[in-house]
Amino acid sequence: MVGAKPPLRPSIGLDPAKFGTHSLRRTKAVLIYRRTGNLRAVQLLLGHSKIERTVRYLGIEVDDAIEIAEKIDI
Question: What Å distances lie between residue 32 and 38, 41, 45, 46, CA to CA?
Answer without folding.
Answer: 8, 9, 10, 11
